[in-house]
Amino acid sequence: MIYEFLYPLHTVFSSFNVFRYITFRTIFASITALLICLVLGRWFIEKLQKMQIDQQIREDGPQTHLVKKGTPTMGGMLILFAVTVSTILWANLSVVYIWLVLLVTVGFGLIGFLDDYRKLAVRNSRGVPGKIRLAAEIIIALFVGVVLYFKPGFSAQVTIPFFKTVLPNLGWGYILLCVFIIVGAANAVNLTDGLDGLATGPAGICFVTYLLFAYFAGNVKVAHYLQIPYVPGAGELSVFCGAFMGAALGFLWFNAHPAEIFMGDVGSLSMGGALGTVAIITKQEILLAIVGGVFVMETFSVIFQVGYFKLTGGKRIFRMAPIHHHFELKGWAEPKVIVRFWIISILLALLAISTLKLR
Ligand code: 57M
User: Fold this and answer.
1) In this structure, is residue 259 part of a structural domain?
2) pTM for this model (two decimals)
3) Which residues does ligand 1 sit against, CB inside 6 Å?
4) Is the peptide bond before 62 cis (omega within 30 degrees of 0)?
């Protein structure tokens, strides 16, 4: 909005030229979202406490989690607010990608909100039935896939990390890939969100990484130099990624161990969905498996655990899935598991960035 209203005034005030630059707007989008979370965080936590929006703690989980009883949840609403306001303020709203990514963020947030709300309104309920939740997620992701597929200039080719010249064109299969990535990312982040800051930290790291990829993909010179697909308009997603990174940091201020607030499904689903969408639009779809490797690892730990459990009639690979519970039950202190997963996440982000040259 600032871009639309203030940049045209650069003919009168030459300093307003600065609003043209994606780098400048990305920095200020990050700061805006960060400050919104920091300033409103305490008030928001108190509001949730007054409304008794607090987390039910499962009794079959690690016993160390029982002290978390009463922690307010649904903090993802604050993240959503910060990201949306900041993106609308700082991004160029004539770029359709911004609206697509906001649609997924808010749409997946709404699904998560209804799920959280049902769990709270009907205590001990399992929330929105899994099939309905999945169907709603697929519908939103399908819409995004179809819009992108038919968008002139947007290619159905997939970038394969480490291979410069291998760019398979999936045709309409690209739409299915979009659905798989967006829905998969949303649920992977959701599964990971089981320790203080465990999802927030790596998600912030993923958004910084994709902030760079969006900037590179949207700049014709840099894209050609790096030999990555050029996506006109994708640079604006840097502003969005900056906003999400800022919101994640601002939320982490309160979500850091010992957490004063959890994000709830409203936060985890929207964060993951947004990440998947950004990966698709920047045409670094498969790279998300590396950048978001922590989320992938958590998801596979559940798939393997459940599969093995069923095959063997009750035997387990891990002490408990998702894998963060395994380390907790091995006796690692919660902050140790969290910080080590962050370190892995940073390492994976660096590896992902290195694919720009390692090809
Ligand atoms: C939700 N959420 C937390 C909070 C957060 C298929 C199955 C493996 C699914 C999985 C599952 O339900 N995962 C998704 C994970 C919950 O947090 C809430 O949920 C939101 C995210 N969706 O924002 O609102 C609890 O996580 C802890 N937490 C923190 N700090 C945070 O910042 O400590 C969350 C955020 C909170 C809090 O304790 O209450 C969750 O775990 O419920 N299911 C599981 O993860 C279960 N695993 C399991 O049953 N494994 C089995 C196999 C055979 C499937 C096994 O290994 O034997 C575990 N979940 C829990 N306890 N809580 C089992 C033990």
Assistant:
1) yes
2) 0.96
3) 55, 57-58, 60-61, 65, 68, 73, 190-191, 193-196, 255, 259, 262-265, 268, 302, 305-306, 309, 316, 320-322, 325
4) no
